Request: fold
Amino acid sequence: MIPTLTTDRLILRAPKLADFEHWAAFFASPRSIHERGMMERDAAWRVWASDVAIWQLRGYGPFGIDDRDTGDYLGEVGIYEPDGYPGPELGWFVVPEAEGRGIAAEAARAVMAWARADLGWTRLINIIDPANARSIALGQRIGGVIDPDARGEAPGDVVIVHDLTALPPTKEGVA
Reply:
């Protein structure tokens, strides 16, 4: 069962089919260049569906992010670990209307707390393209530390390590 997480402004919930339209638009735009790269719709579908299936296969995955007050879709945050990854990765993206509002940071903190409390994890990583300065800054702002010796997905990736033991093992905000 996929939990629902809440914060002061957000609801993090199970992915739903309508989320794909936002996902496909993001990955069709230049905004995705430093993420997984721009994709045609059919390729985006395969990647999105694979990410969503991680819930069934591993017990964690992406959450859709909704605004608590309006119900508007704001983006996605979650834990990704395709086969061959160096470990569970905390990742995110927000729709253009949500940028610069701290949405990704708030959602990422909720997922980190959930991973600590429910999964018992002590560590998560971010794997970030070195040209993605905004995501690197976000990873550090939410408590991560760049580990120059950690393995990413590709040579040159910036790997940020999050020590979850610093978080209180609480289930507050988890339904």
User: Anything to note?
Assistant: The mean pLDDT is 89.
